[in-house]
Amino acid sequence: MKLTCDEATALCDKNQYNETTLWEKVKLNIHLFLCKKCGLYSKQNHVVTKCVEIHKDSKLIKEDFLSEEEKEHIKEELEIKINQ
């Protein structure tokens, strides 16, 4: 069964939180192998998730919102990671 790009990105989001079944992971990985745009989406999604986790763990995020300085810092990190 072939996935559309919309279905693949939804599964990619779901996979970030370990909520996909084995069969969904198999279908997603096949789609990501064949579709470079979805592969890039998956990579960017992973980078954003990791950056947020790092900042939460380092206690840089102390409230429910980010300061302009924190936003700029995250933006710079994302640009570096995406361009790697």
Quick tags:
mainly alpha, 84 residues
How does this structure look, described?
Helix 1 (5-16) packs across helix 2 (22-34) and helix 3 packs across helix 4. The chain contains 4 helices and no strands. The chain is 74% helix and 0% strand. The chain has one domain (5-83). With 84 residues, the chain is mainly alpha-helical. The longest helix is centred in the middle third of the chain and has 22 residues, at 36-57.
Percentage beta strand = under 5%
What does the overall shape look like? Answer: elongated
What integer is the average pLDDT? 86
Note the main sheet.
none
Would you tell me the structural class of the helices and strands? mainly alpha
Q: List low-pLDDT spans.
A: none
Helix tally?
4
Task: Give a quick rundown of the structure.
With 84 residues, this protein is mostly helical. The protein contains four helices and no strands.
Secondary structure: elements and pairs:
Elements: H1 5-16, H2 22-34, H3 36-57, H4 68-82
Helix pairs in contact: 1-2, 1-3, 2-3, 3-4
